[in-house]
């Protein structure tokens, strides 16, 4: 009896739980990515989805691939993805289904690319392209044409060289330069301006057809979508690589002056055949780019497709209209994909699109092996690798996980990895103990740089570095930015009286804490330390407040945020007003450093460095602060799966081969300059006292002699 009652109660309870979850599940979750400007839509439209009759709610994704991951983990039901995102999904074997396409016209694809030839050029099949003049749309509108699509014709018809003494990019350029008689490929070939200039001089025939061959940039008359067609119709080139819709409007029957008679022009097909442009048979396409799509979780696909069909702008303030607004970039029609399709088969319907993404590279394959130190870093690195490859970034990145940064540095020495991101505090060690050099820097705006300052008590009366003599000091770590910058300042002011530097510092300061100080060094520099709780910038601030020390050498931001950051401070009685930054003659910092730098072996060849630097500069352009798509594909800087500073720092402005974000940056005391000028330890006692002593001896001698006379 009791048992049956319990059983019934249990069944009812289970049912209730089940029903409540079912009720919750009926609201589908759309993963929304905010773009820039007019593409910032979440704040405006997501609240409307909270209406009681709405069947959808917003989840804010960090970027489109973040949405893809959320769908894969079952944390979102659907999102808008681009064709490139789908290739990444396919390569990473992430299962989503395609239910709808977002189109802005009736075409089957967003665009299709064709090769148009001038009949007078005597081209009767694809092999006749050799020694012809090529009109290419050029580079630098990554948002619209990926390099993969821009280079498709050349990769398909031009035999690709693999000279081991040239970068991959230069190999491609050289192959085209040898193959074509001349071309106009305007715009940046590589991201580094000097290198771009060098290549354009070396392979000048690829700019020769341009209207301004010596400049060969994005302002050229023959640059861009309409530029390549203009180049062809003006008779400058024999073959043009262009979008079919642009070809159609260029050769249309409209009476507009800009159009051209189709007579005398033909399509060159991938199979080698020729079709006149004025022919009624459908033109032959080399590669088609599929429309953006609604990608869904398998289990929700059917419902979401039906839901999509019911959306409209009929009621402007309805949740359905709000959802449409969230999904579309231009005014779109949401069409059904019938039947609902898997990514691979969906992409396979677009001519050339999948094969464009799988052309073989050089052998042996060239890679940049990046060292990571956690699962999350390795995961982000893996997504970067896939996403970059889809945009035609070469060479490939490989991600290898080590236990910590020290192991990574050792890995570079052992040649088991090529590159590691090194934080400012480890730069000196990486240079001196591991003999590494920098490939590029994570540059930042002034307010985000690592700026070393001396934090002292507001009422201490300390006015200069020399006033710190005998005082209790807290450092984040031995041999870090703060340590070396203080050492440099004191040394250049001749305040260090003993050698080596460690002894001089111990002699200058009173009881202090310098975490990770080598075992054999003076104990006074370790006296304030308590285990390792005073390690790092916040550690040094804790040391300052808990130990009632006189000075902490930390980054300006650590000082600014420490007192606000309750988690880090714990129970302390002081406030930020009890402290101030020590300034001497209006100079308030001891050094500054970029947020981090990529370090590599000094053995790497010039060639390897050029190839690898370009990989990261290209990723910076595609996934960094200056991304071109309406919404972000993947955030190089910024949260990854909700975590800060994964692999790269969130506050990075851009990656550069110089430490400054902008060329006009003139902030003094750059940390690397300081490291290069640390100098020899010369005990200042000997510098000052020796001349005095000898002077004294000399004068006594004279007095003695004079006295004797
Ligand atoms: C296309 O142009 C050719 C001449 O170049 C002409 O003979 C042919 O009739 C034209 N075809 C159509 C469909 O207009
Ligand atoms: C242009 O219009 C004429 C007459 O309408 C037609 O015969 C011809 O095929 C058209 N050409 C193209 C390229 O559409
Ligand atoms: C990395 O781990 C090793 C031990 O395997 C340790 O000696 C070293 O100090 C660690 N490095 C860092 C930066 O934590
Ligand atoms: C770098 O080159 C030096 C001398 O050429 C050699 O002794 C050393 O083993 C090389 N290191 C690596 C990591 O290849
Ligand atoms: C401590 O040891 C290192 C090398 O092990 C040496 O370079 C340094 O001079 C030593 N310091 C002192 C104070 O003896």
UniProtKB/TrEMBL annotation:
<feature type="disulfide bond">
    <location>
        <begin position="499"/>
        <end position="681"/>
    </location>
</feature>
<feature type="domain" description="Transferrin-like">
    <location>
        <begin position="368"/>
        <end position="676"/>
    </location>
</feature>
<dbReference type="GO" id="GO:0005785">
    <property type="term" value="C:signal recognition particle receptor complex"/>
</dbReference>
<comment type="similarity">
    <text>Belongs to the transferrin family.</text>
</comment>
<feature type="disulfide bond">
    <location>
        <begin position="474"/>
        <end position="543"/>
    </location>
</feature>
<dbReference type="GO" id="GO:0005615">
    <property type="term" value="C:extracellular space"/>
</dbReference>
<dbReference type="InterPro" id="IPR001156">
    <property type="entry name" value="Transferrin-like_dom"/>
</dbReference>
<feature type="disulfide bond">
    <location>
        <begin position="371"/>
        <end position="408"/>
    </location>
</feature>
<dbReference type="GO" id="GO:0046872">
    <property type="term" value="F:metal ion binding"/>
</dbReference>
<keyword id="KW-0408">Iron</keyword>
<feature type="disulfide bond">
    <location>
        <begin position="583"/>
        <end position="588"/>
    </location>
</feature>
<feature type="signal peptide">
    <location>
        <begin position="1"/>
        <end position="24"/>
    </location>
</feature>
<feature type="disulfide bond">
    <location>
        <begin position="135"/>
        <end position="231"/>
    </location>
</feature>
<dbReference type="GO" id="GO:0045047">
    <property type="term" value="P:protein targeting to ER"/>
</dbReference>
<keyword id="KW-0406">Ion transport</keyword>
<comment type="function">
    <text>Transferrins are iron binding transport proteins which bind Fe(3+) ion in association with the binding of an anion, usually bicarbonate.</text>
</comment>
<feature type="disulfide bond">
    <location>
        <begin position="184"/>
        <end position="210"/>
    </location>
</feature>
<feature type="disulfide bond">
    <location>
        <begin position="269"/>
        <end position="284"/>
    </location>
</feature>
<dbReference type="InterPro" id="IPR016357">
    <property type="entry name" value="Transferrin"/>
</dbReference>
<feature type="disulfide bond">
    <location>
        <begin position="381"/>
        <end position="399"/>
    </location>
</feature>
<keyword id="KW-0479">Metal-binding</keyword>
<feature type="binding site">
    <location>
        <position position="111"/>
    </location>
    <ligand>
        <name>Fe(3+)</name>
    </ligand>
</feature>
<keyword id="KW-0813">Transport</keyword>
<keyword id="KW-1015">Disulfide bond</keyword>
<protein>
    <recommendedName>
        <fullName>Transferrin</fullName>
    </recommendedName>
</protein>
<keyword id="KW-0732">Signal</keyword>
<dbReference type="Pfam" id="PF00405">
    <property type="entry name" value="Transferrin"/>
</dbReference>
<feature type="domain" description="Transferrin-like">
    <location>
        <begin position="28"/>
        <end position="356"/>
    </location>
</feature>
<keyword id="KW-0410">Iron transport</keyword>
<keyword id="KW-0677">Repeat</keyword>
<feature type="disulfide bond">
    <location>
        <begin position="31"/>
        <end position="67"/>
    </location>
</feature>
<feature type="disulfide bond">
    <location>
        <begin position="513"/>
        <end position="529"/>
    </location>
</feature>
<dbReference type="GO" id="GO:0006826">
    <property type="term" value="P:iron ion transport"/>
</dbReference>
<feature type="binding site">
    <location>
        <position position="450"/>
    </location>
    <ligand>
        <name>Fe(3+)</name>
    </ligand>
</feature>
């Amino acid at each position: 009896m009791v048992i049956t009652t319990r059983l019934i109660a249990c069944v009812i309870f289970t049912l209730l739980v089940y029903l409540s979850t079912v009720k919750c599940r009926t609201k589908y979750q759309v993963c929304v990515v905010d773009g820039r400007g007019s593409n910032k839509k979440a704040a405006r439209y997501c609240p409307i989805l909270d209406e009681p009759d709405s069947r959808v709610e917003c989840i804010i994704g960090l970027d489109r691939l973040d949405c893809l991951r959320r769908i894969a983990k079952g944390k979102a039901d659907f999102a808008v993805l681009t064709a490139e995102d789908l290739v990444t999904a396919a390569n990473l074997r992430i299962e989503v289904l395609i239910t709808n396409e977002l189109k802005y016209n009736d075409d089957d694809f967003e665009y299709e690319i064709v090769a148009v030839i001038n009949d007078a050029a005597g081209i009767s099949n694809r092999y006749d392209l050799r020694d012809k003049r090529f009109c290419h749309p050029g580079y630098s509108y990554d948002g619209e044409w990926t390099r993969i699509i821009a280079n498709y014709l050349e990769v398909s018809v031009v035999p690709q060289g693999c000279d081991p003494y040239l970068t991959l990019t230069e190999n491609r350029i050289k192959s085209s330069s040898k193959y074509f008689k001349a071309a106009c490929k305007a715009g940046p070939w590589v991201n580094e301006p000097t290198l771009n200039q060098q290549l354009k001089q070396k392979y000048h025939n690829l700019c020769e057809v341009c209207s301004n061959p010596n400049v060969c940039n994005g302002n050229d008359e023959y640059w861009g979508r309409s530029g390549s067609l203009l180049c062809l119709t003006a008779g400058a080139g024999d073959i043009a690589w262009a979008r079919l819709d642009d070809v159609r409007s260029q050769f249309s029957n409209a009476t507009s002056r800009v159009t051209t008679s189709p007579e005398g022009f033909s399509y060159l097909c991938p199979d080698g055949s020729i079709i006149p442009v004025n022919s009624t048979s459908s033109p032959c396409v080399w590669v088609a780019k599929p429309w953006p799509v609604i990608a869904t979780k398998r289990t929700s696909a059917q419902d979401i497709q039906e839901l999509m069909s019911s959306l409209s702008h009929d009621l402007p303030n309805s949740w359905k209209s709000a959802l449409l607004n969230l999904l579309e970039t231009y005014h779109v029609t949401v069409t059904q994909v019938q039947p609902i399709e898997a990514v691979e088969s969906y992409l396979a319907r677009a001519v050339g699109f999948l094969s464009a993404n799988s052309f073989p590279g050089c052998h042996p394959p060239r890679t940049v092996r990046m060292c990571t130190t956690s699962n999350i870093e390795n995961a982000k690195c893996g997504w970067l690798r896939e996403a970059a490859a889809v945009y035609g970034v070469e060479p490939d990145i490989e991600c290898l996980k080590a236990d910590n940064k020290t192991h990574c540095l050792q890995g570079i020495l052992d040649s088991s990895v090529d590159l590691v991101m090194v934080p400012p505090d480890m730069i000196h060690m990486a240079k001196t103990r591991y003999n590494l050099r920098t490939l590029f820097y994570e540059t930042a705006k002034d307010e985000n740089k690592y700026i070393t300052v001396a934090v002292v008590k507001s009422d201490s009366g300390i006015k200069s570095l020399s006033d710190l003599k005998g005082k209790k000091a807290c450092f984040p770590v031995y041999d870090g930015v703060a340590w070396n910058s203080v050492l440099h300042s004191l040394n250049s002011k001749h305040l260090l009286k003993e050698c080596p530097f460690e002894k001089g510092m111990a002699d200058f300061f009173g009881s202090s804490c310098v975490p990770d100080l080598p075992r054999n060094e003076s104990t006074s520099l370790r006296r304030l330390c308590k285990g390792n709780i005073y390690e790092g910038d916040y550690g040094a601030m804790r040391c300052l407040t808990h130990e009632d020390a006189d000075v902490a050498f930390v980054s300006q931001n650590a000082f600014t945020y420490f007192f606000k950051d309750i988690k880090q401070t714990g129970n302390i009685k002081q406030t930020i007003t009890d402290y101030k930054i020590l300034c001497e003659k209006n100079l308030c910092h001891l050094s500054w450093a970029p947020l981090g730098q990529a370090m590599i072996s000094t053995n790497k060849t010039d060639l390897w460095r050029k190839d690898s630097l370009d990989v990261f500069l290209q990723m910076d352009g595609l996934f960094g602060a200056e991304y071109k798509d309406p919404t972000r594909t993947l955030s190089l800087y910024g949260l990854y799966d909700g975590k800060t500073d994964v692999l790269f720092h969130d506050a990075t402005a851009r990656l550069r081969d110089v430490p400054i974000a902008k060329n006009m940056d003139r902030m003094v005391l750059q940390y690397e300059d300081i490291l290069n000028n640390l100098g020899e330890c010369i005990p200042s006692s000997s510098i000052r006292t020796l001349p005095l002593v000898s002077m004294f001896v000399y004068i006594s001698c004279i007095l003695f002699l004079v006295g004797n006379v």
